[in-house]
Structure formats: structure tokens, C-alpha cells
Amino acid sequence: MLNSILSLTPDQARALDQYAADCTTGLSPLLARHYQWTRDTFEDADRASSLLQAQWMMQRAQERRATRVLDVGCYTGLSALAWYEATKQTGAEASTLYAAWKAFVSYGCEDRIRVVEARAEEALETLAGPFDLVFVDLEFSAYRPIVGQILDRGLLADNGIILVDNVFARGFVIGEARGNIDPAKLDHWKQSGQVVLDFNAFVAADPRVTVTIWPFFDGIAEIKLRGSERSSK
Amino acid sequence: MLNSILSLTPDQARALDQYAADCTTGLSPLLARHYQWTRDTFEDADRASSLLQAQWMMQRAQERRATRVLDVGCYTGLSALAWYEATKQTGAEASTLYAAWKAFVSYGCEDRIRVVEARAEEALETLAGPFDLVFVDLEFSAYRPIVGQILDRGLLADNGIILVDNVFARGFVIGEARGNIDPAKLDHWKQSGQVVLDFNAFVAADPRVTVTIWPFFDGIAEIKLRGSERSSK
């Protein structure tokens, strides 16, 4: 349809999202359970990813046969579980910074999820690469230093990818977006839009990498080392 | 953000789409060239996929290391080129039904794209499986018989996927959607919404498969044989 993104009212966006979930029969039961728990338990659950996004992340790791995953930034740990589920066959270790450790233990997932409780910048200094997949989803102001640090320290495998979440900042990268934004948080999102705009420009200008901005969910930047396609496939 | 889909006005959707493309540095030059040619040459170019969707399809085939791809339905052949680009290393053969053969020849891509000019139902009868990836993107009324035929004839590899495009029918699966729809085509899209609704229900009820509806682009159904995850990874 030439454009990548449908125009929808808030009601339509919600209805279509629900419709997609309702028609989906291949969801991971573990992710569905943890998503429901997040929704039911936390007032600010809007911070979590959607279940279909978690399913998408699981699939990316599966198809790339990732064996080492680094998850930078954790709310209730839905992404860490996605990596866990994705890597059952490769026996991968997922390192997540910050965490919902009790939930992981109750699911029996603590065997391959390692939680590092520390500021991301400090934790990164203690980790050794390379990682096949790095997921970055923490405060916007940390995007640039964290991604810079990952590249500078060579933590990304030659054929690895960095996925950075929310690079549309709810649409605010293009100025004021309509979305389902709480009016009280409008200033926060306007500022966030500017911060993410700067981050996206920083990545696009970095000669070490190529980036694709996936125009779905809240925008996901996929960053690869330049030349990695040639050498790996 | 709990929901998978942003709510955007038509202008915002267009701006965000353009922004994503502008920030993307890792696009396939061949896909970009063919996309531009499609835009410049055809008045009904709105039928084509977006460039970022083509890039997404290319990546899916790459990461799955597909070796045999079947592309059912062809407009200017952007999807066939995506499979071609994705499978350079595996040397895959992409079979596309209907086609833009001259363009393929001018790019030097005719070596591994086989064009079958026939009605899809008839062409499918002549093809032998299994295919690792099948892309279905033709008139909505053909979705159900074509996918049924692919499953009945065992054309899908055990670990293969069928991707069916436009399963949101521009949002009309949930009733009237706002989108960028030409008012003259409103009835067409309302009817299409109903046809696709029936198709999605048909797939969700088929015990042979699981389906995930990706809530991006115009909705993409990903269909897998049940149990294929266990056996293959």
C-alpha cells in the first residue's frame, strides 16, 4: 500500500490490535501469562511492550539462532522472557539489567536468565561480548550513551543486531502526535521526541553501522555492523 | 506501550513513514530502485508494498535461510525481488506467479526468479513443494482457496511459513476504518474487510496450523504447521 503505516483513530487502533491478538493462535503461553500478570498488577503497565511485540522479539531471536542475548532495561521482564523462550534450543544465556526476578523464578526461568542489578552504563562495563542480540529499552536519554558504549566496547557480535525500542517516541519524533497520550504527560513526550530524534540521527550518521527503522509498534531501530551481511551469510 | 498500534492522522502516518525511511541506511539498493520505478511508472502504485515492508520481507527470508520461495500474486514484482535479494547466499529459486519480467531481466535477476504466468489455482497444481516461504498477495477472494490448496497439497515445508499480506484490509476488518481510502473505493474496502475477516477466521480454526497476525504494515498473517517449532529448532 506504498505507505507502511495505517492511519487510525485511537479506538480503531485499539480494536485492530485486539483483533490481531484474537486471531493469533500461535502465542507463547509463558509470554501470554506474564503479559496478563503485568496488565493486572501494575498501574503503569502502559510502559510494557504489547504481547504481539514480545512474540515478534521472540521470533527474531529464534530465527537468528541467537545464543547470547543482552537485554538493557527491564520493567516487568517481558522482553527477557521472550529471549528465554526464543533460545530454548540454543540454550542461550540472557543477561538482563534490572529485573522481575521473582516472576522468573516462579516460571522456572532463572536457569538461563542472569539479572544484573546496576546502572546500565556500569553493568555494561562488567560484561564481556560478543552478544548476538542486544535489546535496548530504558530511559530515552540513555539510548545514545548505551548504544555508543556497546559499539565502542565491541559487545556486538559481527553478525549481531541491536534492537532499540520506541524510536518513534509514540510518534513525537515528527512533532506533536495524537496517540493515546495522557495530557499530563504531553511535555514529557514532546521532550522525548526530541531526544529520540537526536538519537536516531546519531545512529544514522555512525559509519560503523547501518540502521533500519521498522515502522511498527512504537518504531524499532535495528542496528548492524556495516559489512556484517556479507561476511555472515 | 501495551498496544501494538499507534493512532495517527493520515498526515502523521505519512510523516512517520517518511521519517522511518529517511533514517534507514541499510536498505537494499535493488529494492529501492524497483520501488522508485514502481512509484514513478504506475498510477495505481498504491497497490505496491512499501519499501520498508519489502525490506522486512527480505530479512525474514534471510534469517530463515529460505531456499525455496513461492510468491503467489505479483504486481510489479517488488516481493519477488525481495526474495531474490534475501537468498543470494542460499542460491534459492523464487517462483513468482504473474510478473514484471522485463524489469527482472534488466536487473540481471532472471537467473533465479521463475515466472509462472497462469491463474494461481492452476499454477499451484503444477508446482511441487516443499517451499520454505510462501507469500500470498493477490485478490482477497483467492486467499482462502489458495492457502487451503497450499496446505492440502503439502506445498509448505515442515518448518516453512506462509505470509499473507493485507489481512487488515486497510483496517476494514474491524468495520469502517479511516485510513487514506479514496471515497470511490469505500464499498470495495468494506466488502474486502468482510472477505478478509472470513479468511482470518478460517485460518484461526484450521487445526493443522498456528497463525500470528503481525499488527504492522496492513496486517500480515504468518501461518506455520502445528508442531513445526518443536521439530525444527
From TrEMBL, chains A, B:
Transmembrane segments: none annotated. One of its GO terms (biological process) is methylation. It comes from the Eukaryota. One of its GO terms (molecular function) is S-adenosylmethionine-dependent methyltransferase activity. Keywords: Methyltransferase, S-adenosyl-L-methionine, Transferase. InterPro entries: Cation-dep_OMT, SAM-dependent_MTases_sf, SAM_O-MeTrfase. CDD domains: AdoMet_MTases. Belongs to the class I-like SAM-binding methyltransferase superfamily. Cation-dependent O-methyltransferase family. This is S-adenosyl-L-methionine-dependent methyltransferase. It comes from Coniochaeta ligniaria NRRL 30616.
